[in-house]
Design goal:
The chain contains 3 helices and 5 strands; from the N terminus they run βααββββα.
């Protein structure tokens, strides 16, 4: 992994549609942006922050997330997640997360990822079956 700094930022966007609502993914009954989909978008932003810093054969895996979902977002609105590196300890990287729609903040929290050798990680995981 190349040297990271505490100003490394990644972003990810989506539009709320019928496929990413709480009703569609089973996390509720309303046609609003689902919390599990917000978490996935947060992780995607963190992954995007690291793309240019990984060496060949490296990837990252999420190991922890602590978030709040503070406001609902309706179908048709754009959502933007931002992940900012706030701490690096060897292969462990911690992010500050925020997610907004066009009206304002809808979620925030922290997320931890580890840099791993992709092939070795996948092989070890596959050996479980």
């Amino acid at each position: 992994m190349k040297q990271l700094n505490n100003i490394t930022i990644g972003k990810a966007n989506t539009i709320v549609d019928k496929n990413n609502t709480a009703n569609a993914v089973g996390s509720g009954s309303l046609e609003v942006f689902a919390t599990p989909m917000m978490v996935a978008l947060m992780e995607k932003a963190a992954v995007n922050a690291l793309v240019d810093f990984l060496d060949e054969g490296e990837t990252t895996v999420g190991t922890g997330i602590n978030i709040t979902h503070v406001s609902a977002s309706p179908i048709g609105i754009e959502i933007t997640a931002t992940a900012e590196v706030i701490d690096v300890k060897g292969r462990e990287i911690t992010f500050k997360l925020s997610v907004s729609d066009s009206v304002g903040l809808i979620g925030e929290g922290t997320h931890t990822r580890f840099v791993v050798d992709a092939e070795r990680f996948q092989s070890k995981t596959n050996s479980k079956v």
